[in-house]
Amino acid sequence: MDATTTAAPPAPRFNPLLPYFAVFRTDLRLTVQSWVFRLWVLVSVVAAVGYGLYKFGIHREVGLVQSASEHTGVLLRSVGLVTLAFVSLLALSGVSGERGSVADSVLSRGISRHQYFLAKWHARTLVLLGAFAVLAAVVLTAYHFLLEPDVTLGGGVAATLVALAVLAAVIAWGVTVGALANGTVIGITLFWLALFGAIFLLSFLPDPFPSPVRAVTQMRSVLRGNYDPTEVAKLAGLFLTVALAGAAVGLVGYSRKDV
Fold first, then answer.
1. Mean pLDDT value across the chain
2. Within 13 Å and on the Cβ side, how many CA atoms surround 121?
3. Per-residue pLDDT at 107
4. How far, in Å, CA of 47 to CA of 50, rounded?
5. I need a surface site. Which of 10, 124, 163, 237 has the fewest CB within 10 A?
6. How far does the chain reach from its first CA to its final CA, in angstroms?
7. Model pLDDT, residue 128
8. What is the pTM of this model?
9. Any residues with CB less than 8 A from the CB of 142 and at least 6 apart, and which?
């Protein structure tokens, strides 16, 4: 009688994107649980709630008209630099904060440098932009009901999209600087000097050039619905292009850098 033979089970197929998704999911959790992220959210919420309730009290007691678009612009100017500082710190610490562990993973071929950089960039971008979008939606909705409702839906969406594009550029270049710098402290120092130095210098440029001060001032008109959709799309596209350029520099530079 012939011996029966059983076919060997097929070998499991390895998913080349598995290391990317592993780092991506882990970094999502670590970013949300970090004290810097929670402190940024707490500071933003306290500032928005406190300022909104204060203006609402004046609106009820004194009877002065408190425009939602005007005070949203004031809030943006007040907490904008704080938001940029926290967001850039979170972006910079993405790669530089795990320099020792990633060296072991890369050298043992557990994950490629491109996958690691992309996972960190995508995770930080998703968490930070998602949190900012939620905060912006809550603030705009609350101010619409507490103050004089002059913010349109289209204006709120347009202003939020431009702000998200700006943050996307800051995050991309922050992750890049953190990946290329030899230390976290050095990277933070260089990036903050470049970021806030650029904001300071741009504030002195004449009208044809972009200025952070004029951008915040024009944001009030955008919130009221007085904007050109084409110009808003061009502005958002400009910052997204800057973000992609930063990510490209990070990919090329990190692939050639010693870990």
1. 79
2. 27
3. 46
4. 5
5. 10
6. 62
7. 92
8. 0.84
9. 48, 49, 52
With tokens 């940024």, the residue in question is 40
The amino acid that residue 156 corresponds to is: G
**Rounded-to-integer distance, Cα 181 and Cα 4, Å:** 63
Q: Which of residues 8 and 185 earns the better pLDDT score?
A: 185
What letter represents residue 230's amino acid? T
Q: How far apart are CA 121 and CA 91, in angstroms?
A: 8
Which residues lie closer than 8 Å to 149 by C-beta, 6 or more apart? 68
Per-residue pLDDT tens over the stretch 32-85: 999 989 999 998 888 888 877 777 777 666 656 557 777 677 777 777 778 888
Which DSSP string corresponds to the chain? -PPP--PPPPPPPP-TTHHHHHHHHHHHHHHHHSHHHHHHHHHHHHHHHHHHHHHHHHHHHT----BHHHHHHHHHHHHHHHHHHHHHHHHHHHHHTTHHHHHHHHHTTSS-HHHHHHHHHHHHHHHHHHHHHHHHHHHHHHHHHHSB----HHHHHHHHHHHHHHHHHHHHHHHHHHHHSSSHHHHHHHHHHHHHHHHHHHTTS-TTS--HHHHHHHHHHHHTT-S-HHHHHHHHHHHHHHHHHHHHHHHHHHHHS--
22: how many CB neighbours lie within 10 A of its CB?
A: 15
**Residue 9 carries which side chain, given as an amino acid letter?**
P
